Amino acid sequence: MHLKVVERLYWCCLLFIVALSGAAAVIHVSGYEGRDVNVSCSYGEGYESYEKYLCRNDCGNSDVLITTTKAKKNKYSIYDDKKRRVFTTTLSDLSSVDAGKYWCGVTRTGKDIYTEVRLFVCICQLGDLSGGGPH
Ligand SMILES: *[C@@H]1O[C@H](CO)[C@@H](O)[C@H](O)[C@H]1NC(C)=O
């Protein structure tokens, strides 16, 4: 009866392990469906006053989700901690379509600075654990 739940947990853990074992150059973030997740990216000294943003896929103009110039948009919000040189984008109400490839960017003249981000969304129905399992 609880097999489905176990299966789900298994996939969940597997994703976390994949996330943890990835290359250091890529930031791996995991979140739960329906919850929020924070994507934090650090940047180099001297870029404190530059615009930061988060984009998806190939990071074309229409792929930019949010920038520090407009701190809140739809399900995204962004905060730049200039003391720690880390900017954090919060994605709220995660769903499976949010999983995938993102880029943290710093706008500058010439080529922007990019950091790759992989977001995993864990479809864990925690309620199943206390309930009678899937029907
Ligand atoms: C994301 O960061 C904000 C601000 O630091 C914090 O209040 C919130 O709890 C964090 N959310 C998660 C899911 O870690």
Automatic annotation (TrEMBL):
The keyword rRNA processing does not apply. Transmembrane segments: none annotated. GO terms for cellular component: plasma membrane. GO terms for molecular function: transmembrane signaling receptor activity. Keywords: Membrane, Signal, Transmembrane. Residues 29-112 form the Immunoglobulin V-set domain. Its main location: membrane. It is found in: Membrane. Residues 1-25 form the signal peptide. This is Immunoglobulin V-set domain-containing protein. The lineage of its organism: Eukaryota, Metazoa, Chordata, Craniata, Vertebrata.
